[in-house]
Amino acid sequence: MNEITRLRRARPDCSELSVDREALFAAIVSQPADRSARVAPSGRRGRRRKLVLAVALALLVVLTAGTALAVTGVIGWHDDTRIISDPVEWQKLYRDAQSKLTMPPGTKWPVRTLQANTVTSPLQPGGEAVAISQVAWECYWADAIKQGDGQAGRQAQAALTDIARHHILVAPEGTSENTAPNGHVDGPVAIYADDGGFEYFTKMIADAAAGHPATLIQSCRANGPVG
Amino acid sequence: MTTHRTPPASAEARFRHIFCHLDAIARYAARRGSRDPEGIAAETMTIAWRKLSAVPADDPRPWLFMTARHLLMAERRRGGRQAPLDPEVLEGVAARPVESGDPEVTAALMELSPNDREALVLIAWDDLTPAQAAASLGIRPVAFRVRLLRARRRFGRALEARASAAERARLLEMESA
Predict the structure, then answer these.
(1) First CA to last CA distance, chain A
(2) For B123-177, how does the pLDDT look when each residue is reduced to its tens digit (9 = 90+)?
């Protein structure tokens, strides 16, 4: 019996709820709800809201055009069935990726290779390099914040912003694990599932830049150190 | 395979879909030693109703668990038992399980760090998938999988150590008898 099975069997019994579910439901829905979920735009006010939304969306597109690579659905996707199995080829792709990414001052690229008797996709070495660079900059920024080094913090913020804009793609929901963007992608990319991970990353950058580095520090703890 | 659900027509209908997790949230709070698990569940649902558009329609459980976790932390702070400041402590503060049905398991769990313990019980007791558990903790799925793997190893070692100690004690008892 493995440890999870044993843990499941030891699950503590919890007493049944004593509340009247229907009464609780009725009490909750009698309160004011989330207006955005409840009120449908209508009439003149609705049209004005749509106009404001359209303008905001257009502004967002203008501001992010050419930089936000990670826009789901902007580029096409396909199942990539190509594989690499040669560690030499893998390391060449990994080195190529390094030349297009940055690492924080004083940090070296860790030695990585393709494990024996395994295969992977040609995009994987670049994706791994992106993840390594990303975590290294996150930890560099976290250290900079602790030491009060504003310049190092701004350098890390710029590096992470560059990664978000140019080295992360979000695969559309429902695509396979072998999914790859159509056509040529300039530079190494990490492909994220459409599960909110990219939004989490960009929010982390924004929060840290705004003086709220808890998520950044947590991410460094969870994903670092590089090595 | 990806499944798609048609969103319910009204806010109430949508909330009904979320409200069916009331029991799961109460059990989540109870297993972490809440003094008022039903109150935590009811408050979580009230917040979900007030912030309905923020609750993912397809899978509300991670959002609900995260909200319940924050309420548990607030309950602990009100109780004056702990005033966590560090994010890592905050992450693990809700991971104090009540007695499990197996004393060895309880003891092994208590040897783990709060983060390890929480990773294990989210999967084994709360029946979340690793992706859901990661979302409920606000961390990346890959980070959660690594944490879970390490937690399983540590938990397995703690169980083994307890089993070995019990065996040694049994042998010593036999020798002395």
Answers:
(1) 34
(2) 999 999 999 999 998 888 999 999 999 999 999 999 988 888 777 777 888 777 6
Q: Can you tell me the distance from the alpha carbon of A1 to that of B169, in angstroms, rounded to the nearest whole number?
A: 23
B37 contacts in chain A (CB < 8 Å): 14
**From the CA of A4, how many Å to the nearest CA of chain B?**
6
Provide the token pair at A115: 């494990």
Specify whether the backbone of B50 is left (phi greater than 0), alpha (psi in -120 to 50) or beta: alpha
pLDDT at B162: 83
Are B87 and A15 inside 8 Å of each other by CB? no
What's the pTM value of the predicted model, to 2 decimals?
A: 0.48
The predicted-structure confidence for A179-204, as pLDDT tens digits, reads as follows: 777 766 778 988 887 777 888 888 88
Tell me the C-alpha distance between B41 and B43, whole Å. Answer: 5
The CA-atom distances, in angstroms, between A17 and each of A29, B27, B40 are 20, 9, 12
Closest by CA to A219, choosing from A202, B66, A151, A227, is A202
Mean pLDDT of chain A: 77
**Whether ipTM exceeds 0.90:** no
CB contact under 8 A, A218 and B87: yes
Does the beta carbon of A15 lie under 8 angstroms from any beta carbon of chain B? Answer: yes
List pLDDT tens digits, range B74-118.
887 766 544 443 444 444 444 455 567 788 888 888 888 888 999
**pLDDT for residue A75:** 58
B26 lies within 8 A of chain A by CB = yes
Given a contact cutoff of 8 angstroms between Cβ atoms, the answer to whether A132 and A109 are in contact is: yes
Tokens representing A43 are 């009439």
- Residue A219 Cα, gap to closest chain B Cα (Å): 7
Q: Is the pLDDT of residue A55 over 70?
A: no
Q: Do A34 and B49 touch (CB under 8 A)?
A: yes
Contact B97, B32 (CB under 8 A): yes
Query: What type of residue sits at position B175?
Result: E
Closest-CA residue of chain B to A219: B139
CB pair distance less than 8 Å for B15 and A29 = yes
Contact of A124 with chain B, judged by CB distance below 8 Å, is answered with no
CA-nearest residue to B21 within chain A is A21
Closest Cβ opposite residue A222 in set B31, B52, B143: B143
Q: What is the DSSP letter of A183?
A: S
CA-CA distances (angstroms) from residue B150 to A227, B109, B175? 17, 13, 37
